[in-house]
Amino acid sequence: MNITRMDLADAGSPERLVLEILKCEPQLPIPVPIEELCLRLDIHEILPLTTKGFEGGLITTPDKFKGTILFNAASPRERRRFTIAHELGHFLMPSHVPSAEGQFLCKLQDMRELKGGESDRRLKMEVEANRFASQLLLPPPKFRVDVAVGKDPDIRQMTAIARKYDVSKEATARAYVHFREEPVAVVVTHNGRVLRDYHNALKFPKLAIPAGAMVPAHSLLRRRTHEQGVASDIDETDAGVWLHVERGRQPAPLYEQVLVQRDGYALIMLSRDVASGDDEEEDEEGEMTSAQRLKRRLDRDC
Ligand SMILES: [Zn+2]
Questions:
Q1: 278 is a domain residue
Q2: Centroid of ligand 1 to alpha carbon of 42 (angstroms)
Q3: Biased composition, Basic residues: where in the chain (predicted)?
């Protein structure tokens, strides 16, 4: 690797930073050698965290001359890689300033923040660090090609991509739903309850089942038994099981696929046919001003 921080001097956004890194290192292998990259970019040490309750940290000075990245050694390798990339994002983003103690300390929830922060500076930094980590570990030029493979969205394909890039299934899902052409959502569940879901709001409607609620009884997860670690076949499900369906309206078909994981966790992939996304634009969008809508589209297109 030849890259140095001088090469990134003009980059002020997560997308621009990743673009410049990929420009300097066109042969960057997959999985991205994140630790080696950090060491090229003035991170002197990458050490296990000793403070409990945090997933990652960065110790640096206000001038960010150099930095030390900290990670939770108890977390799985894929998550540690995302954490290290997230902290590198804090280090490289010129607008990210450390606390008075000269550090960033980030919790697991911080690593999942995807939006917001217009009026909350700390949240904005977390969202940007996540955008940086996601694009760096799943570089769009290559990721886009891998995501497009296959006739239908498929958990097996998504899992294979996660393995190839050495990124967790959940972090892969967050990017997958944006890059796949069809409308796709991925729901994370635990002990039969919805924990959270990821979808591209421009293509996939908001779920009718909020976080914390039970997974519907007629969903594929509950109407069949599943073997742990083996993805189910893709099955058509009544759209009303997961989505708001107006009375008297015939909704587009909804497909469901389940992957039961360890410790009561499961992933559910919901998808629709390509053309079906247009008729049900997300409610959230309707409440936005046109400037907000434009900004949101620009954000997403990056
Ligand atoms: Zn952070």
A1: yes
A2: 18
A3: 293-302
Cα dist from 57 to 36, 71, 100, 251, 288, whole Å: 18, 6, 14, 46, 35
Output the CA 104–ligand 1 centroid distance in Å: 7
249-275 tens-digit pLDDT: 888 999 999 999 999 999 999 999 987
* pLDDT tens profile 170-224: 999 999 999 999 999 999 999 999 999 999 999 999 999 999 999 999 999 999 9
> Which of 105, 51, 111 minimizes the C-alpha distance to 86?
111
Residues 130 and 238 in one domain: no
Give the distance (Å) from ligand 1 centre to CA of residue 202.
27
CA neighbor of 129 nearest in space, from 161, 157, 88? 88
125 lies in the same domain as 189: no
Residue 68 CA to ligand 1 centre (angstroms)? 14
Of the ranges 106-115, 187-196, 281-290, the best mean pLDDT one: 187-196
Residue at which a domain ends, from 107, 137, 167: 137
Question: How many domains, the chain?
Answer: 2
What's the CA-to-centroid distance between 129 and ligand 1, angstroms? 6
Q: In angstroms, what is the span from residue 81 Cα to ligand 1's centroid?
A: 13
Domain span holding position 242:
181-284
Structure tokens at 295: 């900004």
Ligand 1 centroid to residue 64 C-alpha, Å: 15
- Residue 247 CA, ligand 1 centroid: distance in Å: 44
Ligand 1 centroid – CA 122 distance (Å): 8
CA distance 273 to 251: 12
Asked whether residue 258 is domain-assigned, the answer is yes
